[in-house]
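Input (structure):
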């Protein structure tokens, strides 16, 4: 197989990993949620805790996945995690009360994070920095594909069986994830050197452009902490859209389940392109600068959605939000992999995802409580917008800090040359 064909196959397999671990393992929950909630008669607070169990599982896997990758290899961890996600979905399909749903979601979350983080680490090994943003964007499009599939597939299943359609949806998704695990087992190579090729875009004797950064320890790297803080804020913010948008459109706006599913699918389809659009932009203008723009952009759109009830305007806002939906994880994961030593990338990704996981864990709980207290999604959208607004200013501050540091290094090098 040629180098180009192997690169394309690797991107396809990693995109399928994201489709299974995030697209099916996390974001299908938003499409299934309203029907599961009604059938099991959950309150919004209970629903929030079930959703948070997914993200608590994701948090656990984020903490341990980097170490498991170093011990067992990324491929083994990805396959085992996809199988766990499938098991969790099977439990959800059989759920009859809160605790089965809680633990099924927890297992699904562990599998979701356990497959996602190593898959992104494999991208860092196959693609050198100058092409890594675009590659990360392509792989992250798997999440959008999952939203599209769920937004179309779940309403069809509900139409076939209004009582058990959501259960059949979980079963089908569980089977699809197992199929992805088999494909990964058969074809994925965790490193290009296994097939005798170099990373796409790699330059021999390449040296780091970030020599001024502390890379000896991930946990002492203040830049990683700063990026992690903004990732925490986005983890809190984006769930209002990805998890609750279908329920919001049905209950607050009055859409039918079919129309709400279509809006969800349209947003998901547009989001397929968001990662590699913004990944490519970050390759050009810089990672942190791109993050600053994305956070501000999402803040504005979330505020607009909270104030809009006209179907056409809502559709436009959903499309515009979808354009930037996966920009943050694409840029964030790419950026942090450039501020630590390559050998520490799996640890750094796991550590960074801890911040993201904490934000995800608290978001559904807070959202559920706000909705139960106010009988409206308005306060949830505002809280989500505030979070990314803070992220915008934090990213801008980091950009200024890195710019000043870079200027000092350049000035110091010039002085050494002059002397």
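Output (sequence):
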């Amino acid at each position: 197989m040629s180098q180009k064909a192997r690169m394309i196959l690797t991107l396809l397999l990693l995109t399928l990993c994201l489709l299974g671990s995030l697209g099916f393992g996390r974001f299908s929950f938003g499409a299934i949620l309203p029907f599961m909630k009604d059938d099991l008669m959950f309150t919004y607070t209970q629903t929030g805790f079930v959703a948070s169990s997914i993200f608590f599982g994701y948090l656990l896997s984020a903490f341990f996945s980097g170490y498991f990758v170093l011990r067992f290899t990324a491929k083994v961890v990805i396959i085992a995690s996809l199988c766990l996600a499938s098991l969790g979905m099977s439990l959800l399909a059989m759920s009859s009360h809160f605790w089965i749903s809680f633990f099924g979601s927890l297992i699904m979350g562990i599998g979701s994070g356990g497959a996602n983080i190593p898959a992104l680490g494999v991208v860092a090994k196959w693609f050198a920095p100058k092409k890594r943003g675009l590659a990360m964007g392509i792989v992250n499009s798997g999440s959008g594909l999952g939203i599209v599939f769920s937004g179309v597939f779940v309403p069809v299943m509900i139409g076939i069986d209004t009582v058990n359609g959501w259960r059949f949806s979980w079963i089908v998704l569980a089977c699809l994830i197992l199929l992805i695990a088999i494909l990964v087992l058969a074809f994925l190579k965790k490193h290009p050197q296994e097939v005798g090729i170099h990373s796409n875009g790699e330059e021999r004797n390449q040296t780091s452009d970030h020599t001024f950064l502390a890379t000896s320890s991930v946990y002492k790297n203040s830049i990683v902490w700063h990026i992690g803080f903004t990732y925490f804020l986005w983890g809190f913010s984006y769930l209002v859209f990805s998890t609750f948008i279908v329920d919001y459109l049905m209950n607050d706006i009055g859409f039918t389940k079919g129309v709400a599913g279509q809006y969800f699918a349209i947003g998901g389809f547009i989001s397929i392109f968001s990662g590699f659009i913004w990944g490519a932009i970050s390759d050009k203008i810089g990672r942190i600068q791109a993050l600053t723009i994305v956070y501000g952009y999402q803040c504005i759109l979330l505020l607009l959605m909270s104030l809009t009830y006209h179907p056409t305007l809502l559709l436009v806002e959903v499309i515009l939000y979808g354009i930037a939906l996966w920009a943050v994880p694409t840029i964030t994961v790419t950026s942090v992999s450039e501020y630590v030593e390559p050998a520490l990338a799996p640890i750094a990704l796991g550590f960074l995802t801890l911040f993201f996981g904490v934000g995800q864990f608290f978001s559904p709980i807070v959202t559920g409580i706000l909705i139960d207290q106010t009988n409206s999604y308005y306060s949830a959208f505002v809280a989500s917008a505030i979070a990314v607004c803070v992220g915008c200013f934090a990213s801008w501050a980091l950009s200024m800090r890195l710019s000043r540091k870079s200027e000092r290094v350049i000035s110091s090098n010039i002085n050494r040359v002059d002397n």
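Notes: The first helix runs from residue 3 to 24. The chain has one domain: 3-189+220-404.
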